[in-house]
Amino acid sequence: MNRKKLLFTFLILGIGISLFFSHPAQAQGLFIRGDVNCDGSVTPEDTTYLGDYLFRSGPGPACRAAADLNDNAIINLEDYFYLVNYFSGGPAPFPPFPFCGTDLSGPPCTVSCCTPPPAAPECSDGIDNDGDGLFDFPADCGCSDTSDTTEAPNVTSECKDGIDNDGDGFTDLADCGCANECDSTEAPDPLTQCNDGIDNDRDGLIDDADCGCNLTCNSEYPVDECHDGIDNDGDGLIDLSDCGCSDTCDLSEAPQDQCQDGRDNDGDGFADLADCGCSDSCDTNEGPVDQCHDGIDNDLDGFIDLADCGCSDTCDFSEAPRDQCHDGIDNDGDGLVDLADTNCVDSCDFSEFSNCTYRPCDADGNGAWTLTDIVGIVGMVYKGAMKPSPLCRADCNASGGNPTLTDIVYLVNKVFKGGPNPFPIGQCCRD
Question: Full-prediction pTM beyond 0.70?
Answer without folding.
Answer: no
